[in-house]
Specification:
385 residues, Helix Hairpins, Heat Shock Protein 90, 3 domains, five-stranded mixed sheet
Length: 385
């Protein structure tokens, strides 16, 4: 359109006679005016065609009109096939400025209508359309692959949980049998003079309880992973709840010359928690403190705070500590801190993963701060509702 406007302004015949056509005052006779319109139409059509040559527009049909601005249905002159009712989407307008507007002292619009332009537009866009289609196909293939992968992972997770449930339930049967047999055996050896059978029996029962604990831990984690487990929350006075847990550990700690103390800065704080699972959370952290300790005297401190409507439990020990690198992974399932090529402490690496899942199910969070060979501090935050 800009190119056409420049060429029109360079045509002296057009510039001179546009004023005669657009003037509202009759300057010439009607017959002369009609003849002038025919000549101007021919000149305009020729210039427009020259400007469009070489632009791959052979398949498109063009019509034009010279019209006053703001009057869509009114034209001064133009192509015989110009449609004043055609939709604006196929019409392009441009003000004719320069010498033409100065000569006639008016504003006129050049309106250009295009039919069958879709082929031209497709040709202009073909360099983008083909890569776009290829990219869309690639993106669709990636989405399909991703959805299939997610479905496969979900199926594998379900199979894994089913396997764990079946395995642990099968293991529970012999564990129960061993427990029952050891109790019956204990009744029959109480009168024996030797203490050896009693020691063996004590060892059997201890190992049986350990196996039972491992099975329960795996079952609990599998139930949480399945997403079907519903927390049975109830209102609990946390200070009293924690005191009962620590009291149960006091005797064991005294036997091992360890110290377990509480320092509660809160009183009578009620929080909705699942008692069984939350008890396991605290027990898991305490058990880890006992296992990962190389000091002559283990010292564990449990303290509480209440900040920003959150109940905070801090469990601090003076054990081996955890390196910065390992701190990033200790809450991952099956992850265990290595010391060389051996695991001196036995376990499955499920305890802290279970702890994190339980706390997150309560809408809380857990973090760890540790310095190697100095101490470890676990901080649990649970919202008070």
């Amino acid at each position: 359109m800009k190119e056409i406007k420049v060429k029109l302004n360079s045509e002296e015949f057009i510039v001179t006679n546009m004023a005669l056509i657009t003037s509202t005052t009759p300057l010439i006779k009607q017959e002369e005016k009609d003849s002038l319109k025919t000549q101007l139409t021919y000149r305009f059509a020729k210039i427009i065609q020259e400007s469009l040559d070489g632009k791959d527009l052979e398949t498109a049909e063009f019509n034009f009109a010279i019209a006053p601005p703001g009057q869509f249905s009114s034209v001064y002159f133009g192509s015989p096939n110009f449609d004043t009712n055609q939709a604006k989407l196929s019409q392009y307008s441009h003000f004719l400025t320069g010498d033409i507007s100065k000569q006639c002292n008016c504003q006129v619009l050049l309106r250009l209508q295009i039919k069958n332009i879709s082929e031209y537009l497709l040709m202009q866009l073909q360099q983008l359309i083909i890569p776009s289609i290829l990219f869309l196909l690639l993106l669709s293939a990636c989405c399909i692959w991703l959805i299939r992968s997610i479905n496969q992972q979900q199926k594998l997770a379900e199979v894994k949980n089913d396997f764990i449930n079946n395995l642990t339930h099968e293991l529970k049967t012999p564990v129960f049998s061993v427990s029952l047999a050891s109790k019956m055996l204990e009744q029959h050896i109480t009168d024996l003079p030797s203490d050896k059978p009693k020691e063996y029996l004590k060892l059997i029962r201890a190992e049986n309880e350990k196996m039972k604990g491992h099975i329960d831990a795996v079952l609990e984690l599998a139930s949480l992973d399945s997403g079907k487990y519903v927390m049975e929350k109830s209102e609990v006075e946390m200070e009293n709840f924690l005191e009962k847990i620590t009291t149960a550990y006091q005797l064991d700690f005294k036997e091992k010359d360890a110290i377990l103390e509480t320092d509660f800065a809160t009183k009578n704080t009620s929080v909705f928690v699942d008692k069984a699972h939350f008890k396991n959370v605290v027990k898991n952290i305490l058990e880890n403190a006992k296992k990962y300790n190389d000091k002559n005297k283990l010292h564990i401190q449990i303290s509480t705070q209440s900040i920003d409507n959150h109940f905070i439990i801090k469990i601090k020990d003076n054990g081996k500590g955890i390196s910065k690198e390992n701190q990033k992974h200790i809450f991952e399932k099956f992850y265990r801190v290595r010391e060389g090529d051996l695991h001196d402490v036995k376990g499955f690496g499920l305890g802290l993963s279970y702890v994190r899942q339980v706390i997150e199910r309560h809408g809380g969070s857990i973090s760890v701060e540790s310095t190697l060979n100095v101490n470890t501090l676990f901080t649990i935050k649970i919202p008070i509702k």
